[in-house]
Write the structure tokens for this entry.
Amino acid sequence: MASLEDYALLGDRRGAALVSRAGSVDWWCAPRFDAPACFAALIGTPHNGRFSITPKTAASSTAAPPTIDTTRRYRPGTMVLETEHTTSTGRVRVVDCLATGHSRPILVRLVEGLEGQVDMDVELIVRFDYGSIVPWVRQVEGRWHAIAGPDGLELVTPVRLRGHGVTSVAQFTVAAGEQVPFVLGWFPSSEPRRIPDDAVALINDTTAHWERWSARCIYSGEWREPVLRSLLTLEALTFEPTGGIVAAPTTSVPETIGGSRNWDYRYCWMRDATLTLEAFLIGGYQQEALRWREWLLRAAAGDPATLQTMYGVAGERRLTEIELDWLVGYEGSRPVRIGNGAHSQLQLDVYGELLDVLWQAARMGTPPSENTWALALLLLSVLEERWHEPDEGIWEVRGGRRHFTHSKVLCWVAFDRAIAMVEQGRYDGPAERWREIRTQIHAEVCAKGYNEQRQAFTQCFDSEELDASVLMIPLVGFLPGDDSRVVSTLDAINRELTVDGFVRRYDPADQRLDGIGEPEGVFLPCTFWMIEALVLAGRRDDARALFERMLALANDLGLYSEEYDVDAQRLLGNFPQAYTHLALVAAAHTLEPEGSPNRLRRRDVGPGAETR
């Protein structure tokens, strides 16, 4: 199986696919992000489904032999991938995309001969329901069909595939100037309908769609390329019908190879909301930001006491977690899970993140909404009663509830932002009562969350353990970045929670905290938070150097997962990870010089300055 670095993301704003450098689509969920995969080789074996188009000399090898040189890139400003293979006989390009603008998902692959001629191998293994169902394959009016249960796939290509066991295979030769198309579309098996078959037109239309989207980006700072690639990745992870953004398009890619920290991230997290809104606004994508806000408000509707930390792409609440025992897992990392049991946890920070979103929307000039404010009042009434409680926290621990410092800080944010909206004259509310609660939370965090002996804000109240989540303290405006307690906390985290300068979440060896106790990699979003905190502490040179190192950790296409193994020098966790790309965008514009039009931060001076 390919390493994570070898994968590229294809997206059509409804679902996603991952294609390896060698040319194998090893993951595809259709018709939407959280649908059962029809190609699941990523978390199983090739027999669990894949679509491979490779130069013939690489077909029998697990790695490309020296006679093949492979390069790839996205077409600038798009999610259209171009991979070039140079062999001893010629040079060939494979263009891959998920076509945009269609109601049903269409995977397009176009093989183009560039020089000489190249023999190509095709292997198409369809296994619906995460590699568990072998479909019925037949020819229908000259088109290849695979059907099982509710799912169907139709392939249009001039290449004749033949059965080889329960696999479809083919060989063909492409010469310079020739094009060989493959168009594979999903359809409900009960509603067969011919898919478009002009691969060139589909690719051109998709290229134009993404180019138009990228042309709207207003960020013009020093790091435009990685910022735009991150924004494109976020847009590709957006479920267009609702505006929800999934955390990642994959499930159960492990946080340590061979371990059990394997979770399903194909859902929408509340805590991503603030950074998502901020990232889109930085880029000039106000419409996308507002659609995300509207998704958020719909998902959060109902009893505010039952606010969840995550929802499905359409706002679904029941995300029951189960294990798929027929899959061996990515590089043997089991169990493979779908669903996510953390959806039922109490995570008080999400109240702060939701109120922060409403405040940001107000700052960018959206008209007042009484329905929105009515929801905010209900959420605040619940938080007034519950902020004292322990919770499972930002890391969704499974070792029991605690009084996490980060959770309390975000409770402060909820009241702080509500007060700001009242003071700005946009809404009416009991601001004086909220000020008292805000002051009480602030005092309690400073008294119980800061350990004088450790000279650091700690993971939980009255504890000694460090946690990178407290890096958010200056980022949300709870304390100034140059406050002595903040600076000493940065120093403590740098001493004890970093590996070669990159930040871990916490000490994962403590099984009492997360209920697992296994090792994991450094957490890439936390390192971007450190960069922002360093800037706010006046250590811009250190922040810039660390940011440049973080840029070097992306794969050749600018994509990040959630974690990184410093020793093995490889990415870990579900891929690509929205939270990492969100944090990159935030760090990039925090690094912009004061007064720059690209410095659109919300956090330099928080609205509740009088409490500090």
Observations:
- The mean pLDDT is 92.
- The first strand starts at residue 7 and ends at 11.
